[in-house]
Write a structure and sequence with these properties.
With 418 residues, the chain is of the alpha/beta class. It contains 16 helices and 13 strands. Helices cover 38% and strands 21% of the residues. The termini are far apart.
Length: 418
């Protein structure tokens, strides 16, 4: 897995003339800087440019400064120049940054890598975060995805949602599912993304990828158009608004399989988020439609591993069954929650966060305190792990116990005879 890169000193490739404050602005060759940062260590997930700091990379959830000679501290002018280089001749992010204070775009360096970029204004200057998009589409084994999720490939219609906070691996999970479909099914697959992340090549399926702003102005317009483009599978990068959710439901009800993401922390919150964007008068009808349409709600959280090498995904799976459809349609109540259904649904391929965290701790993949910090209900997880903790304490006491009395007595007798 590799260790996080250490703060390094070295001449920045392509960087000319570090200028002290008050002198002429230095020139930064952005592509060369990004390349050097990406190669600074293994498993770099993000690059960060912030005024007042050296360029930074994120490895296994930790930020590390890279103090290249001449770039020990970026100025506001430096980050502005990098932002201009990243946006290039693309007018849309330039306008978005000027009018709204932030802009999303994709950026690639041939032979090096591709990135999902967010440029935003803070305290009157530009800051930049670049998420590294792997060249190779990850597979199920690489991501340690539960085998249950392979069943998604066989679905013919409905909605599958992958949820979680930013940076939890939602895009990677969807990419793995789409790639498996691409390899096994002779389908027409259409993706609508902001921006395009993983590049899918035609295999058994035919895949068309549309990017927001360069290929279509909005998710909802692209999704509405997709209904006339004869896809079997539609991937929507994110269900951001009421109109997109409405059209996604319509698409699933007319024989399409819709894959999408939401920034929600678990299955129950996902249902409430979808229902909550509609007026109160429409919410029961939306519950009924969603109950019939959803096939899986997969939620993810990324945790640091106990060995400090990379991170591991804890995955919660809610599957469409008679019981879960009822809870979605009628709402949750005491003893009738989606979490209860997932706890009881292991034989049907369901699993819940705290159950997965319990396994990780027992297998030595994640430490106890980390598991509690990421748990849905830390108190319940603590109780579930009580036997494990008592056993661990018992082993620790046994290892520290002094030699028994018989051994000491024998030793004393031998000394006396001698």
């Amino acid at each position: 897995m590799g260790n996080p890169p250490q703060a390094t000193q070295g001449q920045m490739p392509g960087q000319t003339g570090a200028a002290p404050a008050g002198t002429a602005q230095r020139t930064i060759h952005t592509a060369q800087l990004i390349t050097a940062m990406l190669k600074s260590g293994s498993h770099v997930s993000d690059l960060i440019f912030s005024p007042g700091r050296a360029p930074q990379v994120e490895v296994s959830g930790q930020l590390v400064e890279l103090k290249f000679k001449g770039l020990e501290c970026l100025s506001a002018q430096d980050t502005k120049q990098i932002a201009i280089d990243l946006m290039g001749n693309n007018d849309h992010p330039v306008r978005k940054l000027e009018q709204e204070g932030s802009a999303d775009l994709s950026y690639g360096i041939s032979g090096v890598g591709r990135f999902r970029v967010n440029i935003f204004r803070q305290r009157g200057s530009c800051a930049i975060v670049m998420r590294v998009i792997p060249d190779k589409i990850p597979g199920f084994e690489e991501l340690r995805l539960p085998l249950t999720l392979e069943e998604i490939v066989e679905l013919r219609n409905g909605i599958v949602l992958v949820t979680g906070p930013t940076g939890s691996g939602k895009s990677s999970t969807l990419a793995a599912i789409v790639d498996k479909m691409n390899s096994e099914k002779a389908y027409h697959i259409l993706t609508i993304e902001d921006p395009i992340e993983f590049l899918h090549r035609h295999k058994k399926a035919t895949i068309h990828q549309r990017e927001l702003h360069s290929d279509t102005p909005t998710f909802s317009l692209a999704l509405r158009a997709a209904l006339r483009q004869a896809p079997k599978v539609i991937l929507v990068g994110e269900m951001r608004d009421r109109e997109t959710i409405e059209i996604a439901l319509e698409a699933s009800e007319t024989g399409h399989l819709v894959l999408s993401t939401l920034h929600t922390i678990d299955a129950a919150k996902t249902v409430e988020r979808i229902v909550g964007v509609f007026p109160l008068a429409d919410q029961q009808a939306i519950r009924t439609r969603l109950a019939k349409a959803f096939r899986y709600i997969v939620s993810q959280r990324l945790l640091p591993r106990k060995d400090g090498k990379d991170r591991i995904a804890a995955i919660e799976i809610l599957k469409s069954t008679m019981r879960t459809r009822e809870y979605v349609e009628k709402g949750e109540s005491e003893g009738k929650t989606l979490l209860d259904a997932m706890r009881d649904g292991t034989t049907e391929g369901m699993q819940h966060f705290d159950g997965e965290l319990d396994k990780f701790v027992r297998e030595g993949l994640v430490d106890y305190e980390t598991a509690l910090a990421f748990a849905t209900n830390a108190g319940n997880l603590r109780l579930e792990l009580q036997d494990y903790l008592e056993s661990a304490h018992s082993r620790t006491r046994s290892a520290a116990k002094p030699p028994d009395a018989r051994t000491s007595e024998t030793t004393e007798m031998e000394i006396e005879r001698f």
